[in-house]
Design brief:
Helix content is 31%, strand content 23%. The protein is an alpha/beta fold. The chain folds into 2 domains: 252 residues, P-loop containing nucleotide triphosphate hydrolases (Rossmann fold), CATH 3.40.50.300; 70 residues, no CATH class. An 8-stranded mixed sheet has the order 6-7-8-3-9-10-13-12, with helices on both faces. Strands 5-4-1-2-11 form a 5-stranded antiparallel sheet, covered by helices on one side. The radius of gyration is 21 Å and the shape is globular. The two termini are 36 Å apart.
Length: 339
Amino acid sequence: MSEPTPLLTGRGLVKRFRTRSLLRGTKETRALDGVDIDVFPGEVVALIGESGSGKTTLGKVLMRLTPIDAGEVKLLGRDLFSLGRQALREARRDFQMVFQNQTANLHPKMTVRQMVDESLRLHRPDLDAAGRAARIDQLLGRVGLAPRADQRPASLSGGERRRAGLARILATKPRLIVADEPTSGLDAAIKLQTIELLRELKEEAMTYLLISHDLGLVRRIADRVLVMLHGRIIEQVPADLLGKTEFHHPYTHRLMRAADLDDERRAPPRERRDDGRGGDAEAAPEDLHAGCVHVADCQLAARLGILPRCTRERPTPVEVGRGHWVACFGAESPLEDAR
């Protein structure tokens, strides 16, 4: 049986940010450090990791919202970074991003109904006025905003703005959605509504990349989990095996302990804010890129006597189980020694 064709691929993705200060001069960090990623039709891929790990930067690069320094991104076999303005506008019907903060993506002087209608006019020219009106009612009912259809963004809560942005995106019938922290900052009731909507999308074979700190959400709806640290994907694991397999990357263990999968009220460590540049607030400095980016915090390396190797060499992913890959030299050691 032939392998399925990815809907989205990223190869060798590198993104650098340079900052300048009077005391330190120019400093370069890599938000993405040679990332490879595949997303297949109909699956939900979750990106997890603390803030500053590169998750949001990767999502924006895959959506061609942030330029790259090296690598390529292909959607349906088309190189997104080679597309001109008109071709990119047409291609955007197939991929959209749900941002954590939707305020900047909503027109302050338009009602929710008008904004969804604008999306339909732009991306669904086949619909007449009656067809658009019917589609608007359907979409707003689906996201629970029918009673707020004639309200402007200033009158909406944060959760309602996020759902209004999702309605605009669903109007285009995209093949792929990148959702950045879709449930963060929502109260319990709205969070549950959002999770149910994401589940419905999954049942309809919608493909999306889910960027989240909420490991409870990830376990509920994701098919595959990618763990990021300092601009690298260090582990790939089927969602149903997260926390249930014999070997995880030491950093993944730390994330799961911090998040406490049985208590979603807790958050992963070292929460950071977005830096305002469209990337992540902290990425890996250049001196981390010769070897493993977790080496400074890794107790496993010292216990197994592989610390010098971890410092010098960059680990490549090792398959440790069905669909489970770990970029860790400890994965090459007997599992009883790695525990």
